[in-house]
Structures are given as structure tokens and as C-alpha cells.
Amino acid sequence: MASPIRVSRRRFLQRSAALASAGAAAPFFIPSGVLAAADQPGANDRIGVGYIGTGRRSAQLRNIPKEGRIVAAADVYRTRAEAVAARYRGKAYQDYRDLLDSKDVDAVVVATPDHWHALPSIQACQAGKDVYVEKPMTLTVREGQLMVAAARKHQRIVQVGSQQRSMAANRLGCELVRNGRLGKIHTVIASNYPSPWEGNLPGQPVPEGLDWDAWCGQTEPVPYHNDLYIPRANPGWISFRPYSGGEMTGWGAHGLDQVQWALGMDESGPVEIWTEGEKFDPPTYSAPESRSRGDGICGKPTVFFRYANGVVLRFGEGPGGGAIIVGDKGKITIDRGRFQTEPEELGKEPLTDPEVRLYVSNEHMQNWFDCMKSRKLPVADVAIGHRSTTLCHLGNIARWLGRKARWDPAQEVFPGDAEANAYLTRPQRKPYQLPETV
């Protein structure tokens, strides 16, 4: 396996500051719209945004700030891309690489299935486009390493769709932990996120206009089925291992991201993983059915992580969008848009340490646009997204291994453990494989 590429948020900020002070900011590509009047930018002065993937999640991300305009849409289902492009009077593409060639496109939103996040994001950076990529950021740890490297090498702003980092309650809850309000942290209880299982659904006719081979991408092609093509159906691609990490990455990318943020581990991670309980034995769905059976089977065994400071994170009765963080003075439950402390008084007193403050962002998409203009790193920068998604991948790897394994968060490898390291990447089908260099 190629050696990992690591650039910390702190080092990048220091480098950016040094470049700016030296008058060397010119290499940054700045879209034409960022210099327009902020109060009322004209159509030709706004940041041109292209959408790669035009399904359910893409539709939820199209209410962009006034500084932007939607100019293009790409989807392997050309009919869908054409409908979205027509709505915004933009251009439609079936091959996203043609969208990346467009001079009208300054930035892209990657809202594809999980197995199609990495390659378009990397190639967008290479094409000089800034990127908003949906969570979970990656399908494998190796994809994340290359995405970080591409963003840094080409000096792109890459925001990951971990929008809870832009929720005030989540930020304050994490600040309380960072300020020592709970005392010494010893335990974190996350939700019991299920791992993915296997699928062998029967074939159905491919809808006209859908390039199914391209949808399969890096994975080996299988027959088309609507309950595979839809993200959460019966059960949908999010539950199947070739295309996703299951709800371990689907919801874990939210909840475990909050754990990393609260513990101050955005540049690191655990040092040991293991499971307790019965052996992981995922089912194979050979006909459409709900997720309930698979989620129940693939929520076992229980996953544990240990950080170098002794904090133990285990799966259990924690909330889906956060976790229960326990210290020697009390505990806090952080979830989507809310937090609660026990005892209650721990969360009432104002914070007094001005040094322990987290990045303030009140709207996730606006934060991306602001950072495209300022060239500052966003609240859910690609390196943060990589670390948080890696924690999800480690949870799945723990179940797949069924034994203890040491993890080196600095080198991003399992030291001397070839079996575990084999899970850091996956075989990829040509021509959809990751590039050797970015």
C-alpha cells in the first residue's frame, strides 16, 4: 500500500498565512464571482456551481447562497440531469468529466452514492474547482488520504457535508467538553451503528437513459434493481457493502464526527479497536425487504475504540447524531441540534476560557461559499471529514476482523497487521480506479 499523505489543518493554516504575508496568494484560483459586489451580484459575477449526482440529496443541497448560481448538472441517469439543468437554465451532462471541463463551472457539489465520492472530488480539485462533497466522504481510508492530498496540492476549498458542525447547539456542547466542564473524560457511548451486508437482488430492466455500468463504477457490475439504485429503499444501496459502509458510515459520519470534535481529535483518532460478543455474520439479501433484519444482524458484535489518552468509545444506547460523553464531573448528550448535561448546571454557566472555542459557522453551505471567497479552510474541511469517516471505517473493520487491532493514527495504518491493512482500500474496476498520483 502506498504511504499515506498527511497534511494537518494547523500546518495548512500556517502555510496559508505565510503565503499571504509574503504576497504569494496568487496561485489560488479565485472564481470570477468572488470579487463582485456582495450585496447584489449579477448573474455573470456569481460563482458557477455544477452538481455531480442529481438525486435525493442533491435536491436538498440546491438552495445555495445568492453569491452562487447553478450552471450545470451531471448524472449517469441523463434524463434526471436534463430535468435539473433545465430548471436552472444550465447544461446537462451524463459524464461528469465533461462538466469539469466547463469554464462556467467554478465549484461542484458531489452528491453521488458513496462509492462515487472520491474520484469526482479528486478530479474536480485537479480541474481547479472547489468542492462540496456529501458525507460520508469516502468508501475507504485510502480514498480519504488521496482526497486530502488533492485538495492541498491544488489548493482547493473542500467542504464535507457534516452539517452538524454548523449547528450552534452542537458546537456549544463540544465546547463544554473541551473546556473541561465534565472533568476528565473516560467514556463515550455512541449509537449502535449497523455495518453493511451483502446483496444479490434479481435483475430488472434498466431505465432508459441510465448508464448502469457507470453507476456501478469501481465495483463489479451487478444486475440493475430499483431497490439497489435508490439509497434507502428495500433496502437500498446504503445497506450494501460494495457501495457503502452501511449506517456505520451513513449515520456514523454524523455521530462519530461529533465525538472527534468534542474530544479534540480532528487530527488524530483511536489507537486500538476491538469487538465483544458474537461473531459478525452479515446476511445476503436475495429479494427486496426492509433494513430491519440486516440492521439487527449487522449491529453485532459491539464495537469498542480506545484513544491514547485512555478514553474508551463504545457502541450502545447513544443518539444517532452524536454521543453520550461521560467524565468524572458529569455527562453530556450531544445530538443533532441539541445537547443536555447531567447535572443540568454543567451547561448553564457561560464559558470562561477564551482559548477553547470552536469554529463558528451558522449555515453549512454559506460557510463553503464564504471560504471559497476568503480561501480559509471551512468548518468541515476535507482533512476533518477524512478523520471522522476513518473512525466509521475502523468500526466496520473491527467487525470484519473480529479481534483486537492496534491503529496508528499518525501513519494511518495497522502496524504489522497485513490482514487489517487490507481493509484500508478495495479492488477497483478499470477505468474507475483511483489515480496513482493527484
Q: Would you kindly provide a written description of the structure presented here, covering whatever features stand out?
A:
By secondary structure, the chain is of the alpha/beta class. The radius of gyration is 21 Å and the shape is globular. The chain is 30% helix and 16% strand. It has helices spanning 9-21, 56-60, 78-87, 96-100, 118-126, 141-153, 168-178, 212-216, 226-229, 247-250, 252-263, 292-298, 364-374, 382-401, 418-421, and strands at 47-52, 68-74, 91-93, 107-110, 130-133, 158-160, 185-191, 198-199, 272-276, 284-285, 302-306, 312-316, 323-327, 330-335, 338-342, 405-406. The chain has 15 helices and 16 strands.
> What is the fold-level CATH name, i.e. the topology of the largest domain?
Dihydrodipicolinate Reductase, domain 2
Radius of gyration: 21 Å
The helical percent reads 25-40%
**N-to-C span:** 16 Å
The assigned structural class equals alpha/beta
Strand residues, percent: 15-25%
In the residues, how many domains can be counted?
Answer: 2
Instruction: Point out poorly predicted stretches.
Output: 1-38
What oligomeric state do the depicted chains represent? single chain
CATH homologous superfamily assignment of the largest domain = Dihydrodipicolinate Reductase, domain 2
Number of strands: 16
Principal-axis shape equals globular
Average residue pLDDT: 91
Tell me, what is the CATH class of the largest domain?
Alpha Beta
For the biggest sheet, the summary is: 8 strands, mixed
CATH-scheme architecture of the largest domain: 2-Layer Sandwich
Give the helix tally: 15
Strand arrangement in the largest pleated sheet: 15-14-13-7-12-11-9-16
